Amino acid sequence: MAEADPGPLAGLARVPEEQVADAAALDARLRGADAPFVIRGLAAHWPLVRAGLESADAARDYLLRHHRDRPFTVSVGQPGSGGRLFYDDAMAMNFRTFDAKLPDIFARIAAFAGQPQAPTVYLASIDVHQYFDGLHAANHIDLGDREPLASIWIGTRTRIAAHNDVPNNLAVVAAGRRRFTLFPREQFRNLYLGPVDNTPAGRAISMVDFHAPDLARHPRFAEAMAHGLTVEMAPGDALYIPALWWHHVEGLEDFNVLVNYWWRETPRWLGQPQEALNHALMAIRDLPPDQKAHWRDMFDYYVFQNDDQVTAHVPEGGRGVLDPMTPELASRLRSYLLRALSR
């Protein structure tokens, strides 16, 4: 099938393609990966993929045979929005979110098929184990000893603004087609990020319209494009996105399904860095410049540098949270923070 028109981003470099022979080879490749790569046909054997290749109706029927009878959270955008789930002019969301049963959602999607101005319908990050029975057993990627969160994303034609996620991500197209546009972590300044609290899905997003970038308003985006990668994916294809890489995601068909796996290489009991950033915005950002400089040095000393000079002069057994973090130390520090923040 011919690729959809990528528009202004047509000149971006392509995500490298690789092959893996089995689960062990995939595990080894993931452990050494520091940049995105795509594996064509990794999930071609999935029954869901085969159903989607038959038709959108067949894919929906397959999912309905496995779904649990419970409300699903669905987002519905305005007609004529081109699938872009974003802000409106007042920086409120241009879509509304509510709960509905999956058969009703699918009936609405089917009714809109082929209508260019149809409202966007999108189910985002639905936990596969909580909302479906047997779907994971029949359709999953063997990720070895990792304990990933498996999510499914279902919708019409969509445009999801560039954002990043804390975990590593293996994204598998199960039905329809997806286009990913990716940027390295350090390109965040050139993506013109929006608010960190008022966001469509919990992560700050790029304010740039990737279909019509305004380089007069966002001139540094040209530098981001110089480092960008793009890939268009068919059913069964899988894309590895390293932790914190920025990615803009488009669903290119009237019906699209993606299954993804998130995992962190760090223990689950460690805190979330975003929470530390949020607190620093409240506690440090608006201090006088000389005090901000001091706290920058303190963060560098205790957090980023974190070498022997921090602890060598403190007797062992008395270093507290300056010792290597453990579940017990993390629990103690979390309790301390909760008490401090509740004052």
Automatic annotation (TrEMBL):
Cited SMART domains: JmjC
Domain of life: Bacteria
InterPro entries per record: Cupin_8 (IPR041667), JmjC_dom (IPR003347), RmlC-like_jellyroll (IPR014710)
Pfam families referenced in this protein's UniProt entry, alphabetically: Cupin_8 (PF13621)
Coiled coil: none
Domain JmjC: 98-278
Name under which the protein is recorded: Cupin-like domain-containing protein
Species annotation: Sphingomonas kyungheensis
